[in-house]
Amino acid sequence: YVALRLLGMSADHPICEKGRAFIREQGGALYTSSWAKFYLCLLGCMEWDGHNSVPPEAFLLPNWVPFHPGRMWCHARMVYLPMGYLYGSRFVYPQANKDPVILGLREELYTEDYKKIPWISTRHFVAPMDNYSPVPRTMEFIQNVLAGYETWSIVQPFKNFVRGYGLKFSLKYMAAEDLQTNFIDIGPVNKVLNMLSAYHGAGNDLKYPTVVNHMARVADYMWLAEDGMKMKGYNGSQSWDTSFAVQAFHESGMVDEFPEIATKVWSYLERTQILSTEVSQATAAFEYETPPNRKACFRHVSKGGWPFSTSAHGWPISDCTGEGLKGVICLLRSKTIQSGVENGAIKDISRERLQDAVNVLLSYQNEDGGFATYENNRGFRWYESLNPSEVFGDIMIDYSYVECSMASLTALCEFRAEYPDHRTDEIAHAIDKGREFLKSLQRPDGSWYGSWACCFCYGAWFGVEGLVTSGEPTSSTIILKACEFLVKNQRANGGWGEDFTACFDKDYPVNGMEAYGDEGSGVVNTAWALMALSAAKYDDVEAVKRGVQYLLKRQLPCGDWPQEGIAGVFNRACGITYTAYRNVFPIWAIGRCREVYGDLLEEI
Questions:
Q1: What is the pTM of this model?
Q2: What are the tens digits of pLDDT across the range 444-483?
Q3: Which of the following is catalytic: 319, 356, 398, 499?
Q4: What would you report as the CA-atom Rg of the chain, rounded to the nearest whole angstrom?
Q5: Closest CA to 387 of 572, 195, 191, 171
Q6: Is residue 319 annotated as part of the catalytic site, yes or no?
């Protein structure tokens, strides 16, 4: 609603009237979640007393304190960093009290007179529909104590003293994040907040260099979709999608049939490996890779990893590194790349660089044997009792995931097959620990919960493939249970289907992909299920054939597959559209099933 009004839509427009009625039916903007309240405060549509304290001086805590922001999951840490700065600065749009749109919003968003709202007593208000992850009582108590810290006169001299240092530290930390990511930042939320912080820190000067650099990268997050302009949840999934696509080509035996594509993919993966090229090592980001600088910025090792999106983004992730490494190894096995490297037509990726990737992967393994996302788990499970966000669950620390663990384990296995003499014992130990971790995550019904896509078919693929590749016999009870789970949920038309509710409810949806699929089935879920069954070499060939036939039936005359429901998710409550999935995974699944089952698919 606010976005439409800022873009010029009149409050009398039918769309705004309908939206405003809905907002008021829920009690008005006082009942939106804390992150939305934060933006309303920045805009001048809510008073800062209506938002719980986000003290920037928390980053000044000594490292020995059990709770420290530096031990939070990096996405949460990098969002609450600029939040702390802007809250501590009490930043508000400078023209808020004169801008007619803002003055109008102060009337439109509330069910009572804006000037009479007792803001400090509204801090914990949240509508039930927005309260997916209720703020724990522990955090509510701390927020109430912090409200006193913000207002009690007796503590103001101390607060003002430490806040000044906290604000300076936050600006310095954000400046490091900006340089390490080429002003893209880890995600769109902290991108916008870092940009506002840079603007405020520059005395509201739009021409200040850091502000100009920030504004130049806003377009990285814009996506012009079929139905209009969107703000993306990341600056893309280029490296992730490319790594999957080349593995699909390789496993289908088609890499050398498309030499131009193979060469382009190789060149892309070569220049995308983080801080590994001459160009990237000549940037300011590389200066932060020294141990003292990484410690000062709470950063994990980056050099040698692969990102989710682009090298410029600068944050490596375990599964992206694993899939990137596997993509490179697949290409190294092709005649096209071998000859191109030998004759100097394409740039080589040295063994040392592949070893750097392995070193990064090994550093991600947690004590439980699983692999985290961006960093090791640095905190404790009880950190979740301090989660201040109502809309995201499990965001306070970096957990081990089935997806990250499978990608890392299978990459280590593929690397070991090619280079058995690098950190041999450590890799073997990591694989053994990781395999046991994957077993421990399997649910009683044979499934795995997928945390980064929808949902159980995805988890089953990662769980089965990770176990089989790392040495688990296909005849083991764990593998058979997983396959039986999948076959049990195969739909009448031969496909499989899940929607976003599976992630939200943590339960397989009885009606499958009811709203955006095909009689409850979807091509992406079907492909993931077939990937798992074929990795296990499951002997129910009829079920596999029905799944393959479903994919073949759904292919469009142009060769594409239809875009169906949202396939991706993060933090259980936010969907991600992966438009490449609808093509990459059916190709991969059909190619693998052909290689595994061969003529058996024709005999039934």
A1: 0.95
A2: 999 999 999 999 999 999 999 999 999 999 999 999 999 9
A3: 319
A4: 25
A5: 572
A6: yes
